[in-house]
Amino acid sequence: MEEEKRRYLGSQRWNRLEERLFEILFLRQEIPLLPLHWEVDFRGVPVSGDLFCWREGVKPIVYAHTSGLGGFRATSALTRLIDLTANVRTNCQSGLRRKVPQMIKKALTNYLSWAAEDGGYSHLKYIPNTTVEVVDRNGEGSTLAAFIETRMRELAQAHRELLAIKPEQGTYSTDMDPESHGETSVINSGDDEPNNHAKSRVYVKREKEEEANEIAIKRELFDGSDDDITMADIPMASTTTLHSPAPPTSYIRPPPVVFGFFIVATSVILLTADASKEDADMIINFHVDMDFQNRSLGVWNALTVAIATCLARDDMMKRMGDFEEEGVVEESDPDA
């Protein structure tokens, strides 16, 4: 896998969470993804038994933090994702293709809502680390590229602004060592750097690499479908604007990796970007293109969405302290 990673990434340096997502997606047919006790909920669903965690000490990738009713909600949410591919095909065959993008967006948004509820941060005024957008396929390539780039950069910038240390704020702790969630020993992570609890602030410097001002999205070809969608349909633009040197930006804690599900007709493209890099240095990375019109990919489409969503959820859980409680509006007593 290391050779494949080097071939795919080239000279790029990814955030550890982006690397982990790449590793899981690369090995997703060979590693256990689901809790063993979920197997009973997926009887009658074409899910291979190898996807369940049979070995002791191996934690699943897609799972629920809450037990009891929370576990039932988790399996129900995943089942609805599995059904999405069949629903998309039904609409296309019924002449309702134009409704498909919004149908997919609603399904993905609902799954993200489940993740927020399961992660315990749905009640907070939080900035999400995942966006779901419908891309107008009829637009020009440069317009599509600009739309995708803008959405990803806006989300990353929102997190940088939230976590930036202002002069009047002083110094804050950057302890980022909460309990780990969803880690699996199947994938080696020996190159992880140990946490340094002595640091009180994080400095992010601009990287002076050749591709610093280039938006690089890996292109990948897929089996043809009725829509014949590939990454070539939405070519990414590159920027050559020169930027004057800027002082290092300090943050309360490193800004997160942001995820993007971009819907093009019946396909969903999964992208990530490391928000801890300044805008000129941030690269938008392509991971996978999911074809929701291919009947044989119903389970894998759902699991791919679930893998990315659960990784994003677990990272959000580590950052809950950055967000405030939703304000409670008290009803006035008309008789008072």
Structure characteristics:
336 residues; alpha+beta; globular; two-stranded antiparallel ribbon
Brief synopsis:
The protein has 336 residues and is of the alpha+beta class.
Give a verbal description of the structure.
The protein is an alpha+beta fold and 336 residues long. The chain has one domain (2-173, 199-323). The chain contains six helices and eight strands. The longest helix is centred in the N-terminal third of the chain and has 25 residues, at 69-93. It starts with a helix and ends in an 11-residue tail after the last strand. Residues 171-186, 188-225 and 234-241 have low confidence and may be disordered.
* Average predicted local confidence, pLDDT: 80
Give me the secondary-structure category. Answer: alpha+beta
Q: What share of residues are in beta strands?
A: 5-15%
Which stretches are poorly predicted, pLDDT < 50 over at least 5 residues?
171-186, 188-225, 234-241
The ordered H/E elements are HHHHEEHEEEEEHE
Distance N to C terminus: 69 Å
Please provide the count of β strands: 8
How would a crystallographer describe the biggest sheet? 4 strands, mixed
Please, how many domains?
1
**Radius of gyration, taken over Cα atoms and rounded to an integer in Å:** 21 Å
Strand order, largest beta sheet: 2-5-6-7
Helix content: 25-40%
Tally of separate helices: 6
